[in-house]
Amino acid sequence: MRDEKKINQETKMLFFFVYEPFMAAKIGADHLELVYANHKLLELLSCQDDQELANYLQSNFWQSLAKKVADQLKEKGSVNLCKLLLTDQAGKKKLLNLTVKEAEVGEEKVQLFYLRPFSLQKDRVTGLLDLHSFKEVALSQIKELAKAGQQVCLISFDLVGMKEYNNKFGYQKGDDLLHFVGQTIKDCFGEFASTRAVEDRFYAFGSVEGLEEQLKKLADQIKTRREVRIGVRKFVYGQDDFTAALNQARIAGESLDNPNESGVVYYDDRMSRKFQMQEYLLSHLDEALEKGWIQVYYQPVVRTLSRKVCNLEALSRWIDPQYGFISPGVFIPVLEEANLSHKLDLYVVRKVTEMMNERFDKGQAIVPVSVNISRSDFTSIDPVAEVAKIVDSHHLGHDLLPIEITETAVMRSREEIVQAIDRFQKLGFKVWMDDFGSGYSSLNALKDFKFNEIKIDMNFMRNFNERSKKIVSKAISMAKSLGIHTLCEGVETKQQLDFLSDCGCERIQGFYYSKPLPYKELEPNLIFKKLPFENEEEARMYNRAGKIDVMVAQPLAIYSYDGTDCRSLFANKSLQDFFKQNKLGDDFVQSERFLKLAERAIYSHQKVSKTFVYGNHYYQISFKPVAEGRNNCLLLMMVDGMVSELEERELNLDTSLKNILPIYNRIYLLDYAQDEWKVLTSDLPGEKGGLTIHGIRDFSVDYGLRCIMHDDLSKWRNLLDYQALSDIFKQQDKNWFTVSLRTQTSVENYVWTDYTIIKVKENQIMLLVKIDTNAEEYQREDLMKNILKGQQRGFDSSFGNAQSRVWQTLLDESNIKLFWKDTQRRFVGVSQAFLDFYGFKSASEIIGKTDDQIGWHVSNKPFREDELMVLEEGRAIINAKTTMVFDGVIQPIHASKFPIFDNGKVVGLVGYFETENLQREKKLPAKSQPLVDNMANVLNSNSLVPEIIKYDDAYKKNGQDYVACWIEISNFDQLKMANGQRFTSQLIDQCAKAIKNEMGTSSIIGRIKDASFVVISNLLGKQEILAESKDVVNELRNIHEVAGISCDLKPLFGLALGSEAENGIEAVNLALYRSQSEQKISFDSFDEYLDLPLPMIIYKPVFNARGDQVVDGILIFVNECYLELYGANKDELLGRRYREILTGYPDWLATSGQAIKGRSVQGQCYDRGMRAWVNYYTKAAALPDCVVTVFTANRGDDRQLRRVASTSEEYFAVRSYLLDDHQYFNAIQKALKELGEVTRASHAALIEIDQTTMTINYEWAKDKPFKADLQRVNLQLFEPFQKILDQEGVLRVKDLHEFMKAYPEIDQRLSFLDSYQLENLLIVPVRDDEKHDIAYLILTDYFDQGDIDPETMLWHLAPVFMKKLRDAVYRMDQNDQD
């Protein structure tokens, strides 16, 4: 008979050492009998003791499992079951791996069960399984369900608009939402049946039975926070591919009719075909692009005013060898969903730019071609940088490639798109909103985004009813009020075209003119339909006219006038009705008075009005210039009002007055009896014909303040005084008189104007205003009178301190350019005339500075010597002849300076200067003056050369170096050919002003030819003028319109020092060469790296004494990406030596000596600045004697080798701190700080121990230090840790919370650790020579997945820390003995 107790004891003795969950049992015919179980198994299965476990093993699950195990043992001798899902005694599901073997114990066979929790990876945000673990578990569980005869479905959950949610509420709120959704799905399907795959997508699996009701409840729960699209796909184990089935579930969910609302869709055969097509498209995209299956078609856009082609839209068409024509509505959404649309979009951009470049080379007409950018492009690439790069590679203007972005894309990615639109527009691209009106947020889009144009959705044309018409007309009017251009697509009929033209829609696109065509078919088709391309000048003019809102009640028209013919381009319905009602025809429009008014508007560049007499009516008509071209001008004509025949009879005007009435600008009727005035006609804003307002006195005051020059206000007020008028009429025979007053015609311009008063009847007069635009002589005469008045003024000595008032008047009112300085030659004060001459806003801009610092002189030495003579010897300098730099030109001047004495001591100097022109007026001998370029108002090339020689002479005599800067517009010839002489002249003028604004006060400026300039300065160093040059280039790049013509400037510049060349002319030539070559010194050299998504630095290598080896590098420039990885700001790095900041000598620094000689160097190494193993690429930089290094992440297969090398590099860096014999406490603190930062830990500490206590004396912590909780703590607290350290030599705790639960005694003693919320822990002992523990090195929350091995670091550093502690004890003992 068996002794069961004895067998149990023997089993326990044999297997007590098993560390993992384990039990021994005997499998009977219909039961499982427990023999022995260790505490790990009891804990795993949530059993308190062996009896509870024995009862638990009698469950159906274990009985069924026992039978299965017994059968496999007979067949194979052992059992291995993976991913076994069971429910423990507490009802919690667990996933385990089970191994079963047989053994003999006391001549009895027992079965040995080894259970190990299955290793699962979980999503950080939701706590659900990651996708890989989910797949493993799901297949195992589905297999078991299939064996049990249950049908299973795979379910996809896709949250709607997650990116927009993050942008609006922040990523923390977004993570909270994802966690909520994950827990909701987990509660429904279980921990091992759900996962978060990517971003906002979840998957789960479950039994078909009751699934529909489950999903309905689940969707309702999730909808409380966010809409969710759910797709379901039935899955048959052994037949279906799991990954493909998941994708098909996703496709089902995405097929919802409304993608923004919740719903559940089951996958079917129709979707199967769609899935196959999607797979085909994605797998053949690259081949289609390479082999030309995808072609670019072009559809013309026609302008309503000119009926010419003003734009093309580039559209992609996929013509497949297998499927034939594939609709864009099929392949574009597939590419967008897969984040591959950027490949198609950039392909189209390349094809378009190649086509335009080809046409340009052939001299053919070019119009802008718009391209579409998909929403997904902004998540896959930087479309702004990529598009600009392609366009620039073909040297095309950015305005030739408008960017179309759909309304839906805009509203789903708001923040991202706002930034992209802004960047596109800053680079000169136009941005259009495509499909305007297709979504629900069109008005919000116009409010929040600054589009250049909207494309009204074609659906409005398909449903062309009265409702659609009203919406479209209002949308056009609203867009124009915001300064946005309008285009309507989908136009197919003449009725639609006429309606849109009447509404003022600028451009039309649709089948009415042409369907999209391949490039080769496009132009023949346009020629056949007589649709020419408009030129650049026409585009500019019509773009301006297109912004006029014509849907107004006021009669208006747009005319084109070429000097002989005034042709109507557009007339709104109000004007058509007005002409019809008043029987006005072409004879009225072509009349001489009509054409002269048009000419006046063109010449004055402003709105002009006139009263026309036609038939028995008076018409107030105005013209306003809209846009001017070389051959014609576009004008806006408006009918501002009409004086009827009845009003004429009431006024009782005689025939002669009626005939001369149209020559007046303004006519008013003043009725003193009624105290009211009436506007009959006026060219002033807000004064329409027929307007009547009460209050003649108020009218007089208001008109006077708006229009009359201050000196003539008293005359104006007397003019409208009724008693004064009555006296005048009594004294003369006629009933009218005229006076002349100066009247404002623009912001800064007044002209003499005739005001004629006509007495109509008692208490009623008519005021007629005629502005004389040719009254310069009046102005000149008046100015001379004022000057004579000013010269007769004297000083009144009765005003207290008369001398002070005289001096202040001299400073404020005189034209003497006075200045005074202290004994250090620094400006103390200046007169107003001095400030006005140089253009300074206040004296604070120069006070405290010397002439040398301001940079007014070619050579500072003569000025310095003259002023020192005044200050040191007390001698005056009278009329010293010299030159100064002013407004970019060298000006001859005569300067006088006098010493200021106080108690016999010179305390400063006072002086003044006059220009050569003033000296000539005084009949002094005149010298030749530098010739000034008429277009740019800077030195011309002939006068620039002698001045450059002067700077060069000053350098060679006095060592005063100078910088030559060459600046030019590289595409000047192209712009000149396209836009003509008027544009060219204004462009040169604007370029010169931009250069003078930035550099004119300290440099001389000259124009060599066209838009090529030279700047010379001896005040600024190379880096300073480099910064100023960058500002100039940026200002030039921001010029997008000249003379009303849109343009895109491409400035270049280069610099050279005088010391770099034999003479000044060679220095200029060197600057020119650098502007055209790779060697230019330019901030453009930096710009190409600023947005580079790779870390990059520019530095100047420092060589050893022999000059044959680089020993360090001075950092000149670092981009944002490097700063982010390094964790510092620019101020901490720039100008410093690399090895001052970091220990070590990286390979990229060591090899930079080869790069500076012109060789490109590349390799790989560990970089301590970025804490990463990197590939590096080094070459010579554009800056002299500098190199640029770009880094990329090294993700090679030899990860372990890289980890060893990286750890070794960081070990030596930390070790270097500990080997510092001059510091003890600081050395250990620095070493711990470095160690903590390298391993990304939250704490790095050294705990010292003696026989009974442990103490933290050295610690580095990110936030809260341990020190307060671990000061002279009983060593017994650490005893549980010590046991593990004695066994394994190191303590690794990956999950501190679980570890504490496994060791209750530790949990109780170290409960204070809860406040630190630590996740992991690493402890390595520091041992002395006798192998006794003297301290512990501790890391918490460290990162173990990177290039650094924290455990190896601690093991190697432990002996170094031991030596440092021992040295510290030795030094303290020495101090005690001393």
TrEMBL record:
GO terms for molecular function: cyclic-guanylate-specific phosphodiesterase activity. Residues 150-269 form the GGDEF domain. CDD domains: EAL. SMART domains: EAL. It holds the Pfam family PAS_4. Residues 278-530 form the EAL domain. InterPro entries: Cyclic-di-GMP_PDE-like, EAL_dom, EAL_sf, GGDEF_dom, Nucleotide_cyclase, PAS, PAS-like_dom_sf, PAS_4. Residues 1112-1136 form the PAS domain. PANTHER family: CYCLIC DI-GMP PHOSPHODIESTERASE PDED-RELATED, CYCLIC DI-GMP PHOSPHODIESTERASE PDEF. This is Uncharacterized protein. It comes from Lactobacillus equicursoris DSM 19284 = JCM 14600 = CIP 110162. The lineage of its organism: Bacteria, Bacillati, Bacillota, Bacilli, Lactobacillales.
